[in-house]
Design a protein that fits this description.
203 residues; 7-stranded antiparallel sheet; 3 helices
Length: 203
């Protein structure tokens, strides 16, 4: 339960629905369900370390998943920045992760993983055709929190374009990256970076 209206703009989506499958992340696993019967068609462990291993037994495994073609794109090793309740208006925990993983969506076999320099923002991971676009960088408030503790990221925020089948980098940009979300226009082959002072609204 959250005290504001973040939706997928805050922590990303923990489920994906398709005509042949429903994918749901729970704990450190992703479940593939039959949309007609709810039968479990597959159960896939996420790469990386579980949140309980990183932060203790009460840590929730928040993260984002999406599907592009035959690939399942997921985050792992979520960031927890402070002691405030997850989901509170002042908390940015659960909004980014250290690891990005691409799996075969039918077998759950890992295809490739990538570790962030700073953190992959859950609401700034998109895919179009054979490319994954994402932002490796944290919100200003999260960076301010880390700076007060002497842990400010050394690497600048960057936008990455990766081959979805191999994880190979196609290009990146670290020039004045500010966005909190990304959009892609296939008609004009444009990647759009957008921002908001705060995507959350009180309930």
């Amino acid at each position: 339960y959250m005290t504001n209206r973040p939706g997928a703009t805050y922590i990303g989506s923990p489920f994906v629905t398709l005509p042949d499958s429903v994918y749901l992340r729970y704990g450190h696993r992703i479940f593939r369900l039959d949309p007609a019967t709810s039968e479990t068609l597959g159960e896939f462990p996420l790469p990386g370390r579980a949140a309980v291993e990183l932060y203790g037994e009460d840590a929730p495994e928040w993260g984002h998943i999406k599907v592009q073609g035959d690939y399942l794109i997921a985050t792992a090793e979520p960031h927890v920045f402070e002691d405030q309740q997850l989901g509170s208006e002042a908390s940015y925990s659960g909004t980014s992760s250290k690891l990005l993983a691409v799996l075969n969506r039918f077998t759950g076999e890992p295809v490739w993983t990538l570790e962030a320099q700073t953190g992959f923002r859950h609401n700034a991971i998109i895919a179009a055709d054979d490319t994954v676009f994402l932002i490796d960088g944290l919100s200003e408030l999260a960076i301010d929190f880390l700076a007060r503790r002497g842990q400010a990221p050394e690497a600048p925020s960057r936008i990455l374009a990766l081959d979805i089948a191999t994880g190979d980098e196609r290009w990146h940009s670290d020039s004045s990256v500010f966005g909190v979300f990304l959009l892609y226009c296939r008609e004009h082959d444009l990647l759009i970076e957008g921002g908001s002072r705060d995507l959350r609204r009180p309930m």
